[in-house]
Amino acid sequence: MTETGTHRRAVVAKRVDSGRPDTTEIRDLARAAGYDVVGEVTQTRKEDPATHIGEGKVATLARTVAETEATVVVFDNQLGPYQTYNIGNELPEGVKLVDRFRLILEIFGQRAQTRKAQLQVELAELRYELPRAEAKASLARRDERPGFMGLGEYDESRERDIKAQISRIRDELERIEETEEHRRAQRRESGFDLVALAGYTNAGKSTLLRRLAEDVDVDENEDLHPDLDATAESEDRLFTTLGTTTRRADMDQRDVLVTDTVGFISDLPHWLVESFKSTLDSVYRADLVLLVVDVSEPVEEIREKLVTCHDTLAERNEAPIVTVLNKVDTVDAEEVQRKREALSALAPNPVAVSARTGERVDDLRERIHAELPDYERERLVLPMTDDTMSVVSWIHDNAQVDSVDYGDQVVIEFEARPAVVERSRSKAGELVGASA
User: Which SUPFAM superfamilies did the record assign (predicted)?
Assistant: First the structure.
């Protein structure tokens, strides 16, 4: 699925329509994938349909690759199948060509440790490969035989195989999602509120999860997540978290589960977001979303990221969103206030914290409590039977009990999530029916 190796030399390339190309992010992504960036080639021009960057720049790219002895070219653009073929024809033999989305898939493949994450990566890779298989078929019909640069040898059955694999993976992911939805329903019935951490990669979501969480791990992925070791340092690299990880939050007022999810990244195509939609379901089906941003970044960059996050969440998310301005320990109070005002339209009333130091995390806990769905009050009158005490015990475990009066009957008053109130009424009805 992914290429491995200890010494992979890469030249990065980027084209923009206007202005000066910034290669900071693509360099970070390349390093996250394990490449050693040894050179770069940039171009400012409108996209060339045949070679993306123009014939002259392709020649420059080929020379740079030869001079640096690079084995990989990483484009910070999406390359079409024919552009990949045409550029590959001009590169030294054996040099691999990777565009932005192929690179992201490499990183995802390296980070995928759970079955669900591995399936999502495989699905995304197949969706990436499908139009290239179609391009190979077209080239083969014209008697051109692309044997390199991401296109590979033509196999007329490959297109059918890809579509069959996509269907198989979708079915398996649906089964996994049904299991996870059942687990979410059980957690809600048990009185847990569900909070999801969303935001860009490297914003500090995993660190914030550890800061909010108790020592109790509640997710099957706990042994696979590097941040679950209380003494572990969060890694300063992209996509440390791929699969979701859920932990119980340390809150006095109510039982809360917090889920850390995969980080967003800009300019993701629809097919890639769609491949990871079952991971994003943890966000879509939460009671509250904490949208985490790095307040130390330039305000325009933060604004762009907030827009991308809101666009991604808007289609299916119904939960309230609270923006968390993280990393306040790295900037002064005046800068935080200035950015808070500049971003007020996208992030009304945000909470500024430092997940690393714990500064103002208690304020965030209070905000979480205020934003979560209101509890309902309930008063139940239960018959005095052998089974009643187990129901009373269940209500104690899943609700905030105000009083219990034991007499000829048991009268219990409590506050709880609507789902818990409904479940308690059902249990009470069963007791009454059994005692009649």
Answer: P-loop containing nucleoside triphosphate hydrolases
